[in-house]
Amino acid sequence: MELWYTEKHTEYASFSIKVDKQLYSGESDLQRIDVFESKEFGRVLTLDGYLMLTEKDEFIYHEMITHVAMCVHPAAKKILVIGGGDGGTVRELLRYDSVESVDLVEIDEEVVNVSKEYLPQTACQLDNPKVHCFYEDGLKFIRRVNDEYDVIIVDSTDPFGPGEGLFTREFYGNCFKALHDDGIMVNQHESPFYESDAYAMQRAHKRICQSFPISKVYQVHIPTYPSGHWLFGFASKKYHPVRDVDWDRWNSLGIRTKYYNTALHAGSFALPTYVEEMLRDVEA
Ligand code: SAM
Q1: What helix, strand, coil percent values describe the chain, rounded to 5?
Q2: Which atom of ligand 1 is nearest to the CA of 58?
Q3: Helix or strand or coil: residue 270?
Q4: Nearest CA to ligand 1 atom 4
Q5: Band of the pLDDT at 159, cuts 50, 70, 90?
Q6: Is a pLDDT exceeding 90 seen at residue 1?
Q7: Which of 2, 18, 131, 180 is at 20 to 30 A from 43, Cα to Cα?
């Protein structure tokens, strides 16, 4: 008998991975959590049936959600991660000696527990003393924070269920308030390709533009995400993500990456024409 994990990307398109076995299945108060073992992609984490990461391609997502902001900001010390309970973003942040503390606000403690047990590749730094975990809704946490962080990374699920509030104007406005004067926010920004994802990404861009003076979008190729074409948002109070960067500073840090490099960083802000048009339509 063959076992397959299938995620429906639209009513008419799906993506499947052949599964060797199911390592974990459980229900937290908020969502169903599953971990599968597969030959092609290694371990796979899903929440409510939606694919969050695979061991084979998670480096692309986690390097690109982290290193772009960390390269642009000349001295990021205090970082906030909202979501990201699998630990992949925290792992990348802790590759910077200059990072003094990372606050991780994850709404579901069970995601952290399951990741520590079944996904050591991403969860490997969650017990680092520089990391402080808060198990609460990021939307509520950010309301009480003022002028605290250099960088905020919103490593959330999609804009429905528990992740919905992390795509609201109130949330982006509070992230602006929680950042220092030269702070940067990066968020997972959905895909431009399928209609419902594209609508979510346009809506997020419109709201971020209303909250931050600099709001740009960059692209990345993630084989296991719907269409493979994914976007991140870069919102900033001061620094432009390509013009205000000291590339030599980042290269001199000697951080070894598998996907990110400074040439790719600059190039990832060059977008296909249809995506530029979608963004322009909501920027006015
Ligand atoms: N790479 C992923 C993706 O886009 O598929 C995101 C992965 S990470 C596991 C997302 C995390 O965000 C989940 O663990 C989820 O519990 C958490 N999350 C969702 N809504 C949240 C909220 N309102 N506040 C804090 N964490 C939230």
Answers
A1: 35, 30, 35
A2: 1
A3: coil
A4: 157
A5: confident
A6: no
A7: 131
Averaged pLDDT for residues 134-159: 96
* CB-defined site of ligand 1, < 6 Å: 47, 52-53, 61, 82-86, 105-108, 111, 137-139, 155-157, 162-163, 165-166, 188
Residues 110 and 229 in one domain: yes
- Domain of 23, in residue numbers: 3-54
- 34 and 83 inside one domain: no
Residue 102 tokens, joined: 């990372």
CA distance 125 to 210: 35
Average pLDDT score over residue span 176-199: 95
Is this structure's pTM higher than 0.90?
yes
In this prediction, residues 100-105 reach a mean pLDDT of 98
The reply to whether 218 and 135 lie within a common domain is yes
User: Residue 178 has which token pair?
Assistant: 């929680």
CATH number of domain containing 83 = 3.40.50.150
Output the CA 262–ligand 1 centroid distance in Å: 27
